[in-house]
Every structure is written in C-alpha cells, then in structure tokens.
Design a protein that fits this description.
Blueprint: E1 5-10, H1 13-24, E2 42-44, E3 50-55, H2 57-65, E4 71-75, H3 76-82, E5 87-92, E6 98-105, H4 106-109, E7 119-124, H5 127-135, E8 140-145, H6 152-155, E9 161-166, H7 170-174, E10 177-186, E11 188-193, H8 194-199, H9 201-220
Parallel strand pairs: 1-3, 1-4, 7-8, 7-9
Antiparallel strand pairs: 2-3, 4-11, 5-11, 6-9, 6-10
Length: about 220
C-alpha cells in the first residue's frame, strides 16, 4: 500500500480562503480540523489516502520541497524567497491577494525617490527577494531579518525602511508608514513536489485537476 499523500496548508488568514477550495476539491477533513481547541497538526480526511497538515505559511514550501508533504498551498512571496528547484507551482488559486512592498516613515516618503537610492537598510522577512530586487538596479540592500512586527523597525531605529506584505495598508498607516514601491503582486499557489509528481503522476495530477475545477467553480459563482 502506497504511503498517504500529505497536503500542507498554511495557518492563519489564508487558511480561511483555502478551505473552500480544499473542500471543493472533494477533500473533507476530520472534525478536529475545525476545532479551535485542538492541538493536532496532522489530520485525516474522508479520502483514506490523503492527510492534511497545518503549518506556518513560510514552512509549507519547505515541507513540500523536502518531500515531507507532497502538495501544499502557499503564497508566491514564499516561493520567491526560497526559490526551491524541487517545487512545481501548476496553479494560481486566486486567493490571499496582497503585495510585497517597500515602506518607510510617511515624513520621509514625501520627498523620497527609490530610484535615487544607492544603499538602503531594510527590515524584512524576505531578505533574498529584497536583495535581488535592489541588486537588479545596482542598489546595495543591507537586510535585517525579522519574522514579525516589521512596522516597529523604523520608529525604533533598527532600519529606516521595511519590506513586507501589504493588503489594505491600514497597518502601515497606523504605524506612520507609507508604501513607496511595490516589489511583487502576491497570491497563493498550489505547489507540488516534483519527485512525487514523477513517482505518483496519476494521483497528483488528479488532485491538481480537482483543485483547478474548484477554482473555476469559485470564480464562476
């Protein structure tokens, strides 16, 4: 009997948008999945050969790239940061829409032009994407890696600018920051481990088709 297929799902905001697609693809998790008090991280489903795991969004790509999960859902911001060659992203799910942006204090932004920068110090969860983005136009980016509370960095003198995900911009505004440049538009993708696709092509291709149909049904609704 083949090992179970494992699908890695991201905790947090995107999970709420992803689950209608998971269910639309015909995968129904056990009741504990929807129990906010449950400490479980791995869940069975009504498909005997499919389990779900729930991990940090940044870790979804790592679980799938290293074969611990066979498929997953994560933002293309994560794919850009890690750039794992083991991953194949066949489907844009059209959820989790936001943007990866550069922001700085509103007072500084009034007279600032990113095209004139030659060296910047930036607090970010995305050091690789940030360095590549600025290096492409000859700007040296010194990155301070943070995993959260990015908006505090400028006010506390850690870095004058940040690179972070922006949805409505309300968090930036509340902390006196303003977007000055968009690095990339972001949405969530279905990702697949390339080796698993080669060894279990029918199963995984079938799941990709089911997710594609769920996406089409969602957009048609």
């Amino acid at each position: 009997m083949a090992e179970k297929l494992v699908i890695a799902l991201p905790k947090g905001r995107i999970l709420k948008e992803a689950m209608p697609l998971v269910r639309g693809a015909g995968i129904l998790p056990e009741p504990a999945f929807d129990d906010s008090g449950s400490r479980l991280l791995r869940f069975s489903t009504d498909q005997a050969h499919i389990d779900l795991i729930r991990v940090r969004s940044f870790d979804v790509a790592t679980f799938v790239a290293f074969g611990a999960a066979h498929l997953g859902i994560c933002g293309n911001d994560v794919l850009m940061e890690f750039d794992y060659p083991e991953l194949y992203a066949p489907l844009d799910l059209g959820i989790g829409a936001c943007r990866l942006s550069v922001a700085e204090p509103a007072g500084m932004a009034k007279d600032d032009d990113p095209r004139r920068w030659s060296h910047v110090r930036i607090a970010t969860k995305y050091p690789e994407v940030t360095r590549r983005h600025f290096a492409a136009r000859g700007v040296q980016a010194e990155c301070v890696k943070l995993n959260g509370a990015m908006e505090l960095a400028p006010t506390l003198g850690l870095a004058s600018r940040i690179v972070d995900l922006v949805s409505t911009g309300s968090t930036l505004k509340a902390n006196g920051l303003e977007e000055v440049e968009i690095i990339a538009e972001v949405s969530s993708r279905l990702i697949v481990n390339r080796a698993a696709l080669k060894t279990r092509p029918e199963e995984i291709s079938g799941l990709i088709d089911r997710f594609r149909a769920a996406c089409e049904a969602r957009h048609a609704a």
